[in-house]
């Protein structure tokens, strides 16, 4: 257990493999008068735009819940960063959240040392050669607003004040729902010394907003069953809270929030949580019906969840034809709302004006992925049929869709180039061979053959309808459609 006293900034938790780079300077929020002065002075300061994940990290640092660490900044932005320069740290909307008074500019952590590629990762570096790390004093200017469950949010100092009336405060920090086994542990611990329970939900951004909100509702339902004096609060949870110094960091945070000690939960509840999410049956002995109901509502069975099927393949391979055939079959079934984002149509509307450079193709495919993910977030089934030649961009789309809580199935329409060229429906292969069309996929532009697609279909010896049946059967086998 940590011996951190309320009001203290937690000590660096030791074992830092970049200790030599530790910035040392302080971090904290300015009062409103100083914040106003900083905002007024900031108009011509260099800025760095932070992601939502960076912001979670920054907020915890400014609140004294995590030790400060150098911040990752694009290398080109760093040329103006002399010692003493104020660097405005802005949220994605452009609001200045904090000011970093530059003390030192450091090289990135070598990739082999970095604990993650994420900018919000351990030391905000990730070995990115295009970024440098900047260390210095951090002054918070505008606290990020979090609009969900505001009744459960409090600053650490507000919490400490609220909890100060209790002799004993036992903290539990969790990123998941709690079940009967957890509750038994809790009841024993809390009842034994008549402690007040401080339950802190760590909101993992990568779990998705819908899931973290369901965990909050499930925790409230659990507290209703538990019936002990308690306070539930929510805390953003950047990735580095969960690295190999996880326990020390959580102990320190519990201390700063005003807890006398932290209780570590057993593993049983993890399995119950996973089973409910997977749609498996869970006995009444394992959890409470009210808790399970909240989680099940956020994790419906696959056949009720959104799904994106991305057909990828060369021009003329048959993506559009197979996607249309599949759409017809799905319309016949009638149990799914279907949207077809066909390559040609997308280029006429969503991606009008984009060409076929690698950058424009990536933008085109990302746009398709973004729209598909939003449709799938609401339970829709989306068929997309762009060439999507780059494996990395296809992976990005997968992540976007999965972050939206939906499923992603990659179908490689694996028609050989010779066959596509023979078909040459639009005469483009002939033009590409003649040099009249440049950067044509498969001729003078690359196509990354998918290494590990969920499904590969061959259109050479198979009719479009038979191809659609193969995809349909695969979706049934994976649980994305019910068997008929
Ligand atoms: N240079 C070049 N390379 C490839 N394709 C070209 C090119 N120029 C035009 N076209 C026509 O555009 C269609 C491919 O667009 P996509 O949006 O699917 O491509 S990508 O995913 O952005 O790479 C593709 O249509 P499909 O045959 O339906 O795939 C082509 O007809
Ligand atoms: N099994 C099959 N699946 C899909 N298309 C096929 C098949 N067999 C022949 N074709 C023909 O191949 C062409 C594929 O064109 P299209 O679907 O527009 O490809 P893409 O969308 O990949 O550019 C169509 O003319 C289609 O009739």
Automatic annotation (TrEMBL):
It comes from the Bacteria. The keyword Transferase applies. The keyword Signal does not apply. ATP binds at residues 313-320. SUPFAM superfamilies: P-loop containing nucleoside triphosphate hydrolases, PUA domain-like. InterPro entries: APS, APS_kinase_dom, P-loop_NTPase, PUA-like_sf, Sulf_AdTrans/APS_kinase. One of its GO terms (molecular function) is ATP binding. Keywords: ATP-binding, Kinase, Nucleotide-binding, Phosphoprotein, Transferase. Coiled coil: none annotated. It is an enzyme of class 2 (transferase). It catalyses: adenosine 5'-phosphosulfate + ATP = 3'-phosphoadenylyl sulfate + ADP + H(+). Pathway: Sulfur metabolism; hydrogen sulfide biosynthesis; sulfite from sulfate: step 2/3. One of its GO terms (biological process) is sulfate assimilation via adenylyl sulfate reduction. Its EC number is 2.7.1.25. Residues 305-458 form the APS kinase domain. Residues 1-28 are annotated as: Disordered. One of its GO terms (cellular component) is cytoplasm. Pfam families: APS_kinase. Catalyzes the synthesis of activated sulfate. Belongs to the APS kinase family. PANTHER family: SULFATE ADENYLYLTRANSFERASE. This is Adenylyl-sulfate kinase. The lineage of its organism: Bacteria, Bacillati, Actinomycetota, Nitriliruptoria, Egicoccales. The gene is cysC.
